[in-house]
Design brief:
The protein has helices spanning 21-30, 32-47, 51-57, 59-67, 80-107, 109-128, 133-161, 167-192, 200-206, 209-219, 226-232, 236-247, 253-266, 272-275, 282-296, 300-304, 307-313, 318-346, 348-373, 382-401, 403-414, 417-449, 452-471, 485-488, 494-497, 501-509. The protein is built from 26 helices and no strands. The relative contact order is 0.16.
């Protein structure tokens, strides 16, 4: 079967336990790591469209936007220093996530979350106080270190704390938190843009300290995951007590036994980044690269980073452009919340394929309309600008339902314990690398390709939807420490990892 097999654990293999209040509160606090990521995504796009910010730090862009009537609509914001302001965070995050991998493995998920919050807090303070471009960029670097640590540890934390039956929904709370952060940032930008003395952008940048403070203080009280505890200690009784607490039942022996086995394997691995290259981990390695790559080439950062700039490109005013970004942010939150509710019932593959089709269709229509209705000069009529906004909202809805949350969920649940931290670091690094590349090149691509940029991203969406259909197995409801079976039973991956497949299955059934 070309689409792969939907593998579900037998009823007797499900661990005992329930979704406890303890787990819900811990995961809600950890998910604030998504809020800081989303806040930065939303705030950077908003402030780069504010005239007072451009006038102070990017005067050439300001002059081009206000006074140069010869410049194409698509090229008014094409400035490499301006895109460096946005993308510098992701270069720092890319390198930070590999440091975070060692911290997460040796000191626990909690330690990385704490360091992420603290660095983001320092970056927010520096950005809000910036008096020159160097302070501004250095603040972005600190923000990047914070996001690198948080994004490396938080999805792992959520997947390891959650019962397998609810793992998809709980892990999707990370992307929901990202959406909430984006919406809060867009609302703040909409308000601060109206500050008459032109210092509203400082408030926007400095307010990042609020979620960063909550995360930093909250991380001090987070419990460590049972998976991390057993990876770092031989105290099985301590791990058992934590399992009993997070699962709300005394009957945790089956899960504990699987954790002990996974821990024994993990402790034989001294170089996880080297071991992840082994043939038996090939499917996970491919997914750790392919999924974050595809998530970025959907073109979502066109909306996430540059929504206000994009809306100004089609002729909306400064305030209207910021308000439109608020609308798209709200749509993203609503659909991500919907994904949380249905992902463990519908499954991962179905949502990714449905969302991919929805994004492909809307991007093709947006590209066609902008090509037909928006020239190099002037703007769209209010009616056509509204149609473009509605189509972009439908596109964002498709992403929020599928590739947004599942781009973080799937990599966090497919790795065995011995390479889990390394695998998540590769996922985050690839995500940041292509976020940087898209962020750094988008304004130039918009200038050169014009409306064709939407066709380019649409082609990538078609490719990634086909990839999911052919190569991604279903992972819903399967315990995280038994995830290796989905590769052994998949039509393609079993050719690579399927040696002694029958013997392994018989040993599991014994």
């Amino acid at each position: 079967m070309a689409g792969g097999l939907a593998v579900v654990a037998n009823e007797g293999e499900h661990y005992h336990g329930k979704l406890t209040r303890f787990v819900i509160l811990a995961c809600m606090m950890a998910a604030i790591g998504g809020v800081i990521f989303g806040y930065d995504i939303g705030i950077s796009g908003g402030v780069t469209s504010m005239e007072s910010f451009l006038k102070k730090f990017f005067h050439n862009v300001y002059i081009k936007m206000k006074e140069d009537n010869e410049v194409s609509n698509y090229c008014k914001f094409d400035n490499q220093l301006l895109t460096s302001f946005t993308s510098s965070l992701y270069v720092a995050g890319l390198f930070a996530t590999f440091v975070a991998s060692s911290v997460t493995r040796e000191f626990g998920r909690k330690a990385s979350i704490l360091l992420g919050g603290a660095n983001f807090l320092a970056g927010a303070a520096l950005g809000g106080a910036a008096s020159n471009i160097y302070m501004l960029i250095f603040g972005r670097v600190l923000l990047g270190v914070g996001v690198g640590f948080a994004n490396q540890a938080v999805p792992l934390y959520l997947s390891e704390m959650a019962p397998s039956k609810y793992r998809g929904g709980i892990n999707n709370s990370f992307q929901l938190s990202v959406g909430i952060g984006v919406l809060i940032a867009n609302l703040i930008n909409y308000g601060t843009e109206k500050v008459k003395r032109g210092w509203g952008w400082r408030v926007s940048l400095a307010m990042a300290a609020v979620p960063a403070s909550i995360l930093t203080l909250g991380a001090l009280f987070l419990p460590e995951t049972p998976n991390s505890l057993i990876q770092r200690t031989n105290d099985h009784e301590k791990v058992k007590r934590m399992l009993q607490r997070v699962r709300g039942t005394a009957d945790v022996q089956a899960e504990l036994d699987d954790l002990i086995i996974a821990s024994e394997i993990s402790k034989t691995i001294k170089h996880p980044f080297k071991n992840i290259l082994q043939r038996k981990y090939r499917p996970q390695l491919v997914m750790s690269v392919a999924i974050p790559f595809f998530q970025q080439v959907t073109g979502i950062n066109v909306i996430a980073f540059y929504a206000p700039i994009l809306f100004r490109t089609i002729g909306l005013g400064e305030s209207a452009a910021l308000l439109s970004a608020v609308v798209t942010g709200a749509v993203g939150i609503a659909t991500t919340a919907m994904s949380m509710l249905i992902v463990d019932k519908v499954g991962r593959r179905g949502l990714l394929i449905f969302g991919g089709i929805q994004m492909f269709v809307t991007q093709m229509i947006v590209g066609g309309l902008m090509g037909a209705k928006l020239g190099d000069h002037g703007g769209l009529s209010k009616g056509w600008a509204f149609v473009i906004l509605v189509l972009i909202c439908i596109y964002v809805a498709g992403f929020g339902l599928s590739w947004g949350p599942l781009g973080w969920l799937i990599p966090s649940e497919i790795f065995p314990l011995e390479i889990r931290s390394a695998g998540q670091s590769i996922t985050v690094a690839v995500n940041f690398l292509f976020t940087f590349l898209v962020g750094q090149t988008f304004l130039a691509m918009l200038c050169h390709f014009k409306f064709g940029i939407f066709f380019l991203f649409g082609v990538w969406v078609a490719i990634m939807t086909a990839f999911v259909y052919l190569f991604l197995p279903e992972t819903k409801n399967l315990p995280i420490e038994k995830m290796d079976r989905v590769w052994r039973e998949h039509w393609f991956w079993k050719r690579i990892v399927g040696e002694n497949n029958e013997l392994i299955i018989k040993e599991e059934e014994a």
